[in-house]
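Before relying on records like the one below, remember that each one covers exactly one chain. Contacts with other chains, cofactors or solvent are not represented anywhere in the record.
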Amino acid sequence: MKRILFVFLICITPFLVFGQTFFDKIKKDAEAGDAESQCMLGTTYRADGDNQQALYWFKKSAIQGNAIAQYSLWDLYYTKEDSTFFDEKQAFYWLKKSAEQGGMVEAQYNLGLMYYNGEGTSIDKKQAFFWFKKSAEDNDADAQFLLGYMYYKGEGVLLDKKQAAFWIKKANENGNNEAKKIWEEWQLSKY
């Protein structure tokens, strides 16, 4: 989530500094087919609360393979507060496209959650494990915790309490609040 906030700030800051002329340039570039400008425009519209225009520009960018736009489409389709766009299947589709490109730890983690919970797809613990592992290896504390949990329970992977202890400990070190409690409750120090 920190990365998305950072990207959002990078996208929106020029508009705040340079105003309408910069917006006009981005819009012109977006209309000419530039995927980065389309994504920036989508981000601007989303920040202004115009989700219809955000959807339009994110889709144009996402179709060209922009991972941030794909992730942003997931967010639009997955947000239940705006039932106009809520669609778990579309959310899953765009999130998977974003995660498969690599580099988007948040996308990989959230895709793992969708597989784990069967949102927009069938429950698939092996796929959930696969995506949590990718995210955990990039130091996502929540993914590390869930990976440890899955090792401990043998969900999507063979039960392995030593690996569970490794990942829960790592999650704790990286700030996951639940990890310390589980470490003690499951007595993982003995593994």
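The chain has a mean pLDDT of 91.
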